[in-house]
Design goal:
With about 400 residues, this protein is an alpha+beta fold. The protein has two domains: about 250 residues, Naphthalene 1,2-dioxygenase Alpha Subunit, Chain A, domain 1 (Alpha-Beta Complex), CATH 3.90.380; about 110 residues, 3-layer Sandwich (Rieske Iron-sulfur Protein), CATH 2.102.10. It contains nine helices and 20 strands. Strands 13-19-18-17-16-15-14 form a seven-stranded antiparallel β-sheet, with helices on both faces. A hairpin with a 2-residue loop joins strand 11 and strand 12. The protein binds FE2/S2 (inorganic) cluster and fe (ii) ion.
Length: about 400
């Protein structure tokens, strides 16, 4: 907050130390998209939700965003499990619903059924089918781990669940302070959008656009073009954190420091490499995940999940109705801004990139998160890392 106040008073912003040219091919190149799919999506553990998404035994969700069809469950002992969502008989998707609670997962094809621990518990006409040894045809497990109230799955059954590296020491220290594990899921949106998944990430990476694109929406409650930025690149990491500046800081800065609250005066935005944005705020948390469309660098799906803090559930009577309306309005407003403002720009950027008419775009000194995204991607894919430049000249 002190950094933000200093910037506000001086009329300055964070400074990346230079400008950064970026080739537009990163949004259009099919070979790069395939490499990203293999290395960033199939090749890493991924955060697919929060503990509250699987609040009870038998709770489940499915995912088809990472190449492998995934069924994630809470088993009868309360443990988080994940499986290849493919029947061990002839491979049909066992569970076709997105989420819910079930005692049994029954394959629609011939009705083999599995429990929440993936155990094959029903095989109709077993005497006709032939002998199946115990545990031979349970659902194939995927590496799964619940950490800091976040649910991680590796889409490769042989994958390495290395959350120490994915989260780094920094996020492993800091995430427990947010109590993500207690958050209650309220809303799940999915937007199939005509832009590369990295353009979706880009739009979350700066507030330079608030006074322009969001002048009638977000700019009413945020100072634009002011933010803090930190990353763990120097420690060998690949994540970053921004603190965006809410206008409530104008009042809070005059309060005693022990009453300061970063979620009232500001908005923390965590980027978890490669495709996850986590934004905790006073009433809850947004989780944004962007997934490429296989074979099409110009499309992606954003999953936007909204979670509420458990304290808000305790309201009763009139207050409960007010809280419900307040919560619904947060989810609605955020969805509208992302869909109708940010992703409209992302699609227009994609249209131009597809044309190939401009081979380079530029990230400003005041857009350090964008430098970071693209330097990390390039580094991991062994592509040339763009140098920062002092100025743009003819
Ligand atoms: S493929 Fe699932 S029961 Fe036959
Ligand atoms: Fe935006």
């Amino acid at each position: 907050m002190k950094q933000l106040i200093t910037h506000l008073d001086a009329g300055t912003n964070v400074d990346a130390g230079g400008l950064m040219p970026q080739s537009t091919s990163t949004y259009t190149d099919l070979a790069q998209a395939e490499q990203e799919m293999d290395e960033f999506f199939r090749g890493l553990p991924h955060c697919l939700g929060m503990s509250g998404d699987l609040a009870e035994p038998g709770a489940f969700f499915t995912s088809n965003d990472l190449g492998t069809p995934i069924l994630a469950t809470r088993n009868n002992e309360g443990r988080f499990r994940a499986f290849v969502n493919s029947c061990r008989h002839r491979g049909a998707l066992v569970e076709t619903e997105e989420r819910g609670v079930k005692r049994r997962f029954t394959c629609p094809f011939h009705s083999w059924s599995y429990d929440a621990g993936g155990t094959l518990v029903g095989l109709p006409k077993a005497d006709h089918f032939g002998e199946v040894g115990e545990e031979c045809l349970d659902l194939r497990p995927l590496p799964a781990e619940e950490r800091h109230g976040l649910l991680f799955v590796h889409p490769d059954p042989e994958g390495d669940m290395d959350l120490d590296s994915l989260l780094g020491e920094w996020f492993n220290d800091e995430f427990p302070t947010w109590n993500f594990g207690a958050m209650i899921p309220i809303n799940h949106d999915a937007y199939d959008t005509a832009c590369n998944w990295k353009l979706a990430m880009d739009t979350f990476g700066e507030t330079y656009h608030f006074s322009s694109l969001h002048k009638d929406t977000l700019f009413n409650s945020f100072h634009g073009n002011v933010q803090c930025y930190d990353d763990d690149l120097a420690e060998g990491g690949h994540n970053h954190r921004m603190i965006l500046c809410r206008r409530d800081i104008d009042e809070m800065r005059h309060m005693p420091e022990e009453e300061w609250d970063i979620t009232v005066a500001a908005l923390p935005v965590y980027w978890l490499f490669p495709n996850v944005i986590i934004m905790p705020f006073a009433a809850g948390c947004f989780l944004v995940r962007a997934y490429p469309a296989p074979g099409d660098p110009g499309r992606h799906t954003s999953k936007i999940d909204f979670y509420m803090k458990p304290e808000l559930k305790n309201a009763t009577g009139d207050e409960a109705a007010e809280v419900a309306e307040f919560i619904a309005s947060i989810a609605r407003n955020f969805a509208e801004i992302i869909r109708d403002e940010d992703y409209v720009m992302s699609s227009s950027q994609q249209t131009a990139a597809n044309s190939g008419a401009l081979d380079t775009i530029y990230f400003g000194r005041n857009e350090p998160a964008l430098h970071h995204y693209h330097r990390v991607y390039a580094q991991k894919l062994d592509l040339p890392i763009p140098d920062r430049i002092e100025s743009i000249s003819r």
